[in-house]
Amino acid sequence: MVISQILKTDTRRILTDPFMIFMSIAPWVTAIITKAGWLYMNKHYPDITLDPLITSLAVALLTPMNIGIVLGFQLLEEKEQGVFRAISVTPLNNDYYLFYRFAITVVIGSIMTYFVHEILGLISLPLVFLLPVILVATCQIPLQSLMIASFARNTLEGFAVMKGTGFTLLVPLLVAYFFSDYSISWLAGIFPFFWLIKAYQFAINDQIGLFIASLSVGISYTLLLCWILFRYYRTNALK
Hints:
Keywords: Membrane, Transmembrane, Transmembrane helix
Helix content: over 70%
Protein name: Fluoroquinolone transporter permease
Number of domains: 1
Mean pLDDT: 80
Radius of gyration: 19 Å
Number of strands: 0
Distance between the termini: 28 Å
Number of helices: 12
Strand content: under 5%
């Protein structure tokens, strides 16, 4: 009952907000356009070398970030409307309410990420590799949403936070593209998305031990950051 009501409310909010609609359909549109562009370039400009790894990372595995942004603005709007103060005095307290929100979006994000990755079809991975990578990717959903909802006091500040956190995604991608063969690249490990990139690379190269290690670090580090932000959100952002 609670989950169905949350889904109805979120769906209504998304369908009435142009920005939310854009962020929700952007991964699908981007994947289709990228796939078409990739096929066109390979057919008409075969001498130009394209990197399927970076393309897949930038399109498919960033899909959870879009979902996290949507959820972050939803939480921010609810904070402005005093929803959390009302929930705190009901049997469904804020902790359970946020757990429901994160669980629902992680499930949706996992499905979306899988299909966007397959629509691109640039890199083929067995499910035993792809599904754990998607799991780590979807951990970015609560992280991204909590960054927006915790540090922004209104929608305008939410956009500023969203833009400001873009470098946490851009830097690891640039490092993976330009410095992946250098030991200095590991300095980018302070960004959680870096470990997703490394796991994806190790999966492609069939390096099982390093794949498992990167997954473990990635999910542990991301969940630690989520826990820290969640505590901040409860103690400061909901005042």
